[in-house]
Amino acid sequence: MSGRGDEVVEIRRLDEGDVPALIACTRRCYGESYPESDLYEPSYIRSELRARRLLSVGAVVGRRVVGHIGTRIPIRGDAVGETIAGIIDPEYRGRGLMLRMGGQMIADYRDLGIEATRHIATGAHDRTQRMIASSGGVATGVLLGHIPAGTDYRGIRHGFGGARIAAVVYFQAFGPLDPLDVHLPQHYAELVRDLYGQLELERRLPPIRTSSADGSTRPWACSVHHDTHRGISSLRFGSLAGDATRQAIEFVGEVLPQCQAIVYADVPIADRRAPQLLELLHDRGFCFGALLPGTAASEAIRMQRLAETSIAPWATVTASTGGRALLEWIHREHERTAD
Predict the structure, then answer these.
(1) Domain end residue (candidates: 173, 190, 214)
(2) pLDDT tens for each residue of 182-207
(3) Judgement on whether residues 98 and 169 belong to the same structural domain of the protein
(4) What is the 3-state secondary structure (H, E, C) of 189-248?
(5) What is the rounded CA–CA span in Å between residue 54 and residue 301?
(6) Is 274 in contact with 268 (CB distance < 8 Å)?
(7) 141 lies in which domain range?
(8) Contact of 235 with 266, CB cutoff 8 Å
(9) Phi and psi of 188, rounded to 5°?
(10) What is the value of pTM for the model shown?
(11) Cβ neighbours around 34 below 10 Å, total
């Protein structure tokens, strides 16, 4: 069926009964190559909807889903969500559906107490990014190899060839976030202070105090998740992790040899130990990936490590001058770390 201009496209929240039509839309957009494989699994999507860990808004024609945008709630009860799966059926592109779905999504945030969102938008094109930037989103990072090579953007060409595809991280606030003290190594302070200024967030960066209790050797809550489908391992620390505690230096040394080609490490920067842990990660080949603003529990720096991975930074499309400047800064940081 071809999309017709006279069709009525309804924008509404999706429920469990819409899951098969949502998966069919994903396949029309990406075939079997969509990076988040869970979004092909009906039972997973239904359970996330039921538990209110996923808010899902769709563009619907009859029983057919022709567009979708979702918001995942990574930390239960937190005020910050992460958008996922912003897709439009190739036959319905150019009709402003993403903007309409985004408006409905923002209206629905009140039900979940969401005050802000993080967006991880593909760098293969700027269609989604333009909407985010025009509605107030600020670029806070670039993940240089976030999306597997060979992802099939049906109807959209890009310049990554056989390399992994970058993603641009944006942050967008819809309500007030509490002031925070954040703790960073000196070489990230200027960059992050500038981002906070663009975001108009009240953040204070106290002077770094040396301590005999090194943040890399003191016990941290630590966790690791390996996503073999996307080729990404994710390390999390402190308030972002589970209950198991380890010395950070031992944990990182143990898990890195087992990790996928891309490794992320999320470090909560409201924690006074963060500067030493971030320095440890830098010494282990990680570079800055993104600032992830949030609450005291969820505000973080995402570090990224790309071990012998084919990337093509200059193929990355950004929708703002800030995004382009960040790409250049992070690419330089990556090259220094890789040397």
Answers:
(1) 173
(2) 999 999 999 999 999 999 999 999 98
(3) yes
(4) HHHHHHHHHHHCCCEECCCCCCCCCCCCCCEEEEEEEEECCCCEEEEEEHHHCCCCEEEH
(5) 23
(6) yes
(7) 10-173
(8) yes
(9) -105, -10
(10) 0.89
(11) 21
